[in-house]
Design goal:
Length: 71
């Protein structure tokens, strides 16, 4: 069995939009705060949500770069 560690997707461009989604890594504030204590399974689910947000952003739906707010 191959054990893969999911790497933190933070790209050090931290800025939250109005929906509390980071414009850098596309994680929710809740996911960012939970990351360090999350299991690999939970991190996989977080990354699945990131992938969904990336597709939505590419399609122009609720672009995560709209209206950033600095934290």
């Amino acid at each position: 069995k191959v054990c893969m560690t999911i790497v933190n997707p933070c790209v050090r461009q931290c800025s939250l939009n109005e929906q509390d989604i980071c414009v850098g890594c596309l994680r929710s504030l809740q996911d960012i705060l939970a990351w360090s204590a999350a299991s690999q399974s939970e991190k996989q689910q977080m990354m699945k949500r990131v992938a969904e947000r990336r597709v939505q952003a590419a399609e122009g739906v609720h672009s995560p770069k709209s209206h950033p707010k600095r934290r």
